[in-house]
């Protein structure tokens, strides 16, 4: 048994991440999803189905990350302050998973929630295969003693889950909230994205140090091969998943560009160069994840997500300013 000393000057970066995680702490009860009911009732059936499907998939991935990914990575880690950060982030994965049930409790009957979370997720092949590929590396950490190579690859898998695989699910809520629709639920997703952003950044930072300090040149070469192999496999699964989930509402192309955009961001978290070419990402989605576009109350720190009246849906053309002359 060892005690941790938070009063030393060591591990300042880990302490910064710890503080940022605490500053971002939130729970789903603060968000009144009932504000979205008028938007929900005006959505087409295919739109509602897509919304429920993507949140269901996220629920499964978040739960597994909270139960397996973060705890196993932290268990074998050799830095107590960084272990504490991993433990906090594992807890927040369960807050994320519970948040989707919070949204469902307002929008859909409990019988439908039971079906999607108890049956649909279990039977959705791309979701299950995504987590099988990721958990392959997590399960390497179930051994009493593990290699630095296996620890590194588990962190790679974690970064790919949190900086990449989640984002095909995030797209639709962000797409809608960027247009001023389903704002309360979208605000929950924005909070989750803020969390996942620092989860991926922190894990990627630790992984880069492990790669540079603990892996031999041969192990680094093998790790690079396994890293790109895993991401290529996950991207192929995302392509199929995106087709199945989003084709009925004609967003599959936009989502796949967004997925590839985030695949490159995941590689950046690991100190790697971009790998995938893609068309420009929907400005509506980028607007939806830009926290500077939402007004916040200083004391409550909750977004001002009241839906304005007489909303006109935005399109990408609304963000084309090529015909506007700049003032000199």
Automatic annotation (TrEMBL):
Recorded GO MF terms: metal ion binding; ribonucleoside-diphosphate reductase activity, thioredoxin disulfide as acceptor
E.C. number: 1.17.4.1
One GO location term (cellular component): ribonucleoside-diphosphate reductase complex
UniProt-recorded name of the protein: ribonucleoside-diphosphate reductase
Gene: nrdF
Subunit structure: Tetramer of two alpha and two beta subunits.
Enzyme class (EC, first level): oxidoreductase
Catalytic reactions on record: a 2'-deoxyribonucleoside 5'-diphosphate + [thioredoxin]-disulfide + H2O = a ribonucleoside 5'-diphosphate + [thioredoxin]-dithiol
Similarity field: Belongs to the ribonucleoside diphosphate reductase small chain family.
CDD domains named among the record's database cross-references: RNRR2 (cd01049)
Cofactor(s) of this protein: Fe cation
Keywords: Deoxyribonucleotide synthesis, Iron, Metal-binding, Oxidoreductase
Taxonomic lineage: Bacteria, Bacillati, Bacillota, Bacilli, Bacillales
């Amino acid at each position: 048994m060892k005690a941790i000393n938070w009063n030393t000057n060591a591990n300042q970066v880990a302490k910064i991440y710890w503080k940022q995680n605490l500053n971002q702490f939130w729970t789903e009860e603060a968000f009144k999803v009932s504000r979205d009911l008028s938007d929900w009732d005006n959505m087409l059936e295919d739109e509602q189905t897509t919304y429920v499907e993507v949140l269901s998939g996220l629920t499964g991935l978040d739960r597994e990350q909270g139960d397996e990914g973060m705890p196993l990575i932290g268990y074998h880690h050799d830095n107590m302050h960084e272990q504490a950060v991993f433990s906090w982030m594992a807890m927040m994965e369960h807050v994320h998973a519970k948040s989707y049930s919070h949204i469902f409790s307002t929008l859909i009957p409990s019988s439908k929630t039971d079906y999607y979370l108890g049956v649909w997720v279990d039977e959705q092949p791309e979701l299950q295969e995504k987590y099988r590929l990721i958990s392959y590396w997590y399960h390497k950490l179930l051994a009493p003693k593990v290699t630095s190579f296996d620890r590194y690859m588990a962190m790679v898998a974690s970064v790919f889950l949190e900086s990449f695989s989640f984002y095909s699910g995030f797209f639709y809520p962000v797409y809608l909230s960027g247009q001023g629709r389903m704002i309360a639920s979208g605000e929950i997703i924005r909070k989750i994205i803020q969390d996942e952003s620092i989860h991926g950044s922190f894990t990627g930072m630790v992984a880069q140090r492990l790669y540079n300090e603990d892996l031999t040149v041969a192990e680094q070469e093998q790790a690079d091969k396994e890293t790109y192999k895993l991401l290529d496999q996950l991207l192929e699964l995302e392509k199929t998943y995106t087709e199945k989930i989003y084709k009925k509402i004609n967003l599959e192309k936009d989502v796949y560009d967004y997925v590839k955009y985030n695949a490159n961001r995941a590689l950046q978290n690991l100190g790697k160069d971009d790998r995938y070419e893609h068309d420009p990402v929907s400005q509506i989605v980028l607007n939806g994840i830009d926290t500077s576009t939402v007004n916040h109350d200083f004391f409550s720190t909750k977004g001002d997500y009241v839906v304005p009246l007489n909303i006109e849906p935005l399109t990408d053309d609304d963000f084309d300013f090529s015909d506007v002359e700049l003032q000199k």
